[in-house]
Amino acid sequence: MASNSGIQWYFDDFEVGQVLQTGSRTVSEAEIIAFATQFDPQPFHVDHDAGAASIFGGVIASGWHTCSMMMRLVVDAFLSQSASMGSPGIEEIRWIKPVRAGDTISVQLTVREVRPSRSKPDRGVILLLWEASNQHGEPVATIKGLGMFGCRPAPSSL
Amino acid sequence: MASNSGIQWYFDDFEVGQVLQTGSRTVSEAEIIAFATQFDPQPFHVDHDAGAASIFGGVIASGWHTCSMMMRLVVDAFLSQSASMGSPGIEEIRWIKPVRAGDTISVQLTVREVRPSRSKPDRGVILLLWEASNQHGEPVATIKGLGMFGCRPAPSSL
């Protein structure tokens, strides 16, 4: 199929131990507050003064905002050029250190498991470890995420 | 502390087996596309026609959008009236069924574990099962989430 020409990552292209590095993304206080106002309006996420007075000593990003920013980095790094068929879920998230206004985060991806589908030979599931760090090299969050990917079409169908 | 008067949920108030029901939230195609354009711009999340042509048969919400909507329901249901000290992480997410434009979701919360902190006697961690379902009663996603909560202040400090 000629329309597959933009796809660089099929299920077949993943190997345990592979490492990929995403680009980076800086988050502003306005973005932190805008996300949290919609989805996680706890005082330490949406209010400058309440954040400063909290145990965190300043506004911090909602953990869901951190995960969503990590997702965008992962989409831009490879998922948008992959045969992604969505995700059945996440095995674990750890929010290690707050993400604060002005922080710049990037993600390192490591392939942990490669599982061909038992019932559908045209696809398989990849377990990826996502490790986000900030501009100081400090870990801020990890995700162990599952992704389903289509297999590379057989040569006869090209 | 008089400023604690708005808090109805301290660590002490959780018991294994407790069930809480959130309100509900309806999501539009415009909201699905707006979220995904920022954080998860895969074709089946951001483009009406690409969604229709995909294995999903229509635009579906990013899994991170579904989790973020669930978070807002949980904040409104009880977290905003709790002694929440944030979350160390998530034990598992399962995206069971796509959330589509026009769907209305609500969440049932069940307390699974109550773990007093070993090192800090003023707090503890709760493991909650979040079960989201749509307007047809179909499960769409589950989250096993950790939350840290402060203990109720001793009477002598009131």
Précis, in short:
The structure is a homodimer of 158-residue chains. With 158 residues, chain A is α+β, with helices and mostly antiparallel strands. In chain A, 23% of the residues lie in helices and 32% in strands.
Question: Could you walk me through the main structural features you see in this protein, from its secondary elements to its overall organization?
Answer:
Chains A, B: Residues 16-118 form the MaoC-like domain. Chains A, B: This is MaoC family dehydratase. Chains A, B: InterPro entries: HotDog_dom_sf, MaoC-like_dom, MCH/BMMD. The structure is a homodimer of 158-residue chains. The first copy, chain A, is of the alpha+beta class and 158 residues long. Chain A has one domain (11-150): Hotdog Thioesterase (Thiol Ester Dehydrase, Chain A), CATH 3.10.129.10. The first copy, chain A, contains four helices and five strands, in the order E-H-H-H-H-E-E-E-E. Chain A has helices at residues 29-39, 43-46, 48-53, 63-77, and strands at residues 19-26, 89-95, 104-116, 123-133, 139-150. In chain A, strands 1-3-4-5-2 form a five-stranded antiparallel beta sheet, with helices on one face. In chain A, a hairpin with a 6-residue loop joins strand 3 (104-116) and strand 4. The longest helix of chain A is centred in the middle third of the chain and has 15 residues, at 63-77. Chain A is elongated, with a radius of gyration of 18 Å. Chains A and B meet through helix 1, helix 4 and strand 2 of A and helix 1, helix 4 and strand 2 of B.
